[in-house]
Design a protein that fits this description.
Radius of gyration: 18 Å
Structural class: alpha+beta
CATH class of the largest domain: Mainly Beta
Order of helices and strands: HEEEEHEHEEEEHEEHE
Oligomer: single chain
Number of strands: 12
Bound molecules: fe (iii) ion
Distance between the termini: 27 Å
Strand content: 35-45%
Shape: globular
CATH topology of the largest domain: Pnp Oxidase, Chain A
Amino acid sequence: MVDESVFMKIPYGLYLLTSKNEYKDNGCIINTVVQVTSNPNRIAVCVNKQNYTLSMILETKKFNVSLLTTDTPFEFVENFGFKTGKAADKMAYLKNTGISENGIIYTKDNVSTVMSANLIEKVDCGTHILLIGEVCEAMNISDKEPLTYSYYQKNIKPKPKAKKSGGKVWVCQICGYEYDEEKEGVAFEDLPSDWVCPLCKHPKSDFELLK
Ligand code: FE
């Protein structure tokens, strides 16, 4: 058997992955970044195929990765992680920014480091694509504590509120979205099997019934 909770124990960080095409800068939140070689400095990042940022990277072959810090507010993650940059200008959320040598905007708030890389290889992993990039610029932005996925889950992601509703409430374990059938006016015995979270697009299996 495969116990899914095993995967939740793998330590991850949280990162802002950004790119820029001829129209705009854009970014998304990812949790998989590793340095794969040091001579030359190459990194691997894993991105969901549904992310608009990915299509920009495949087109321009350039991307930045910023390591987030523990002072990152939930609104930051919400802005970059739970909506698409196809329609929205996610970068408008950022206040204190700079531009790296490759021309991509980076934030100086809520980050520890920024790396700029040129795409040299990609591996199709099914739902995700693994990108291998050669680092062309690496900057320290602050000495603040790096943000791990576990810290985010415990301290930044909003806690589910105590159940007040008379109906069933399902909570997305990934982003905290709540489906309250009393509020929505549509009651389910169980969530439909093709259910996806309207915020983070994770499937029904990531939802838990609030007791
Ligand atoms: Fe969600």
